[in-house]
Specification:
mainly alpha, two-stranded antiparallel ribbon, 18 helices, globular
Length: 526
Amino acid sequence: MLAAVDWGLKIVTHEDKKQSIVLQKWCVLLSIFALFPFSQSFNYSDALTKSLLYFESQRSGRLPHNQRVIWRDHSGLNDGIEQGVDLVGGYYDAGDNVKFGLPMAFTITMLSWGVIEYGKEITDSGEYSHALESIKWGTDYFIKAHTHPNVFWAEVGDGFTDHYCWQRPEDMTTSRQAYKVDEKNPGSDIAGETAAAMAAAAIVFRKTNPHYSGLLLDHAKQLFEFGDKYRGKYDESIKVVKGHYTSWSGYMDELLWAAIWLYKATNNEDYLNYVLTNAQAFGGTTWSITEFSWDVKYAGVQIIASMLLKEAKHKKHEHTLKQYLSKAEYYMCSCLGKNNNTNVRRTPGGLLYIRQWNNMQYVSTSAFLLTVYSDHLQATHQNLNCDKGQVGPEEMLAFAKSQVDYILGSNPRGLSYLVGYGPNYPLRLHHRGASIDSYNRNKGFIGCTQGYDNWYGNKDPNPNVVVGALVGGPDGDDGFRDERWNYMQTEACTYNTATLVGVFAKLHGLEGDGCLSPHQPLIATS
């Protein structure tokens, strides 16, 4: 059961004349792509509220007094004690009870990026404080986990022992061993991603909490230096992560990712030079990518780097930045189906489809990147250059919106894949805490196999609703089985929802300013 929350839509009148002009331009452009058939309206403010609420369901540690998800309770209060370090806090990544550092850091990076881009829209919806709380819950944990300039605790628990049991996090009896990377056991990928997360978060907190922002930036710099000096994949140092969050792409993308976020946070040219001088050797300007995820960061690096071209001071770096631009365009054109050869497949219902397991993570990341870049193109009066012709910013946003609307229910099944949104959504998430009576309702201990015996195979809906969770989603033919055992489709992850926060905020802002109408849904051309 959830505590009472105001789900209302807050519409704010914008006084800023400059912003009004931009909004008017968006409204005119978006109206070109407004079609009347199959109209379906969505409450993006409600979706934004629920997406931020989700992170409270995934909290580990001692829950605060203002915790709104009341079916959760304290958990993992002894994390790190065996290793003599305080690792209480952070997030469980999905439906299990392990704290995996790499996806947790990517979650915080993307939440922060969403706030950086759409902080005003999040504020207008009344959710800014919740957005900052969701970021700080992660960064507070990273500060604890970074116990020495060259030591970072990358994981608590392990997937193998955790998966033997089906228990609420409040009852955990599985191993809580903590694993670290250090000088002798490097982990450049997790050090780089965590540096990116803390640098991005430092930008978020710069005005509201400058001291905390400075602390985050200090940690980000140290982690980047550590990851760059002692190079290696973290899954070679922490073997138990293999099969769960293996760093298939290696660590070079994370080092570029960390450097470009540190440049955004500091304006220190050394970090930009790192991105430029390592562009080819590290794959930044040689990898043509069609996905962006907790593992593969190249598309994010390429897009941020390409957007630097708009600033006159980067004219001297034009040659390399244009190489980044070429690869950024490849990614975005592949999502839009505008490349001559390689494009991202779509389901019959129009959803981007990368792979069977947790496909929605790729949908949400692409929607975010396309939304951010459409803003960039709009502000600089440019179009996207694809093999099959130019694409305007309005069409890019239209496609991003089509993916979000599919998630919210505009799909062949009429099902919202964002749990708790709308009247029809998955009821049997692959989620330990949600599938068992809440601790506040049943404080009796539920053992390791007892959860499997009494709850896992139960055909009834979960007793607790993980509001705001974005599940793995349908298969390549838009098919979906709402079964607890069907983890490829019914398990949700923090990084799935994290990238939606910014897109929901953007669409809510346009909706509030009259750019989107229930009778004029934005439809992308094919």
